[in-house]
Design brief:
The protein has 190 residues and is an alpha+beta fold. The protein folds into two domains: 102 residues, no CATH class; 66 residues, no CATH class. It is 27% helix and 30% strand. It contains five helices and nine strands. The strands form two sheets. Strands 1-2-3-4-5 form a five-stranded antiparallel beta sheet. Strands 6-7-8-9 form a four-stranded antiparallel beta sheet, with helices on one face. The radius of gyration is 17 Å and the shape is globular.
Length: 190
């Protein structure tokens, strides 16, 4: 899926994009046989007023995940793979339809400030979540480099904490402790 396609889907669904960045396709495995597919079909993380939506092609369907937003609920009665935080769309028009329905979902308190949302220790899982939750910044690149260069067998544990609509991440790499915090939004001139 190309960036322009994602932007068009969001526009047609009436969702304002506050930011957008690509991530590695989460469907095709990290193997050289699938390098071409992952490169040709990146997934996208779209920042909205309600959180982050991940969207991208799997083999035959468009995966749409809104688990990092404050909206929950099933958005279709269609016979598709779905939950209260994701859906598979069999066509671009269906993706637009489902995202319009997503906008109608109630906003709910899905995070409590200062409460850990989840903990992970698998390097691939850590990388996936860093790419989903944080934009491509020099700080994120340094954080990822620390994780990637940790010696084999060294204990790497990461916790994600939700607070004020943002995700903070804290990693323990051996005996070192590092945190990645979101950049504050610039204040608007009045």
């Amino acid at each position: 899926m190309k960036r322009q396609e994602v932007e068009a889907i969001m526009l047609l669904a009436g969702i304002e994009i506050k930011g957008i960045h690509s991530i590695v396709n989460q469907y095709w495995p990290g193997h050289q046989n699938y390098d071409d597919m992952r490169e040709r079909f990146p997934w996208w993380v779209v920042d909205t007023a309600d959180g982050k939506i991940t969207i991208g092609w799997r083999k035959r369907v468009i995966a749409i995940d809104w688990s990092f937003t404050n909206r929950r609920g099933e958005i279709t009665k269609d016979d598709v793979t779905k939950s209260n935080s994701m859906v598979h769309a069999w066509a671009t028009a269906k993706a637009v339809e489902y995202l319009r329905q997503w906008k109608e979902l109630p906003a709910v308190d899905v995070t409590l400030p200062g409460i850990k949302d989840y903990l992970c220790s698998d390097k691939a899982d850590i990388m996936q979540h860093l790419n989903l939750l944080f934009e491509d910044t020099p700080e994120r690149a340094m954080f990822i480099n620390l994780i990637e260069t940790a010696p084999e067998g060294m204990n790497v544990i990461m916790s994600f904490t939700a607070a004020n609509g943002y995700y903070n991440v804290h990693a323990r790499i051996g005996t070192m402790s590092v945190a990645l915090l979101p950049r504050p939004e610039p204040k608007k001139a009045e």
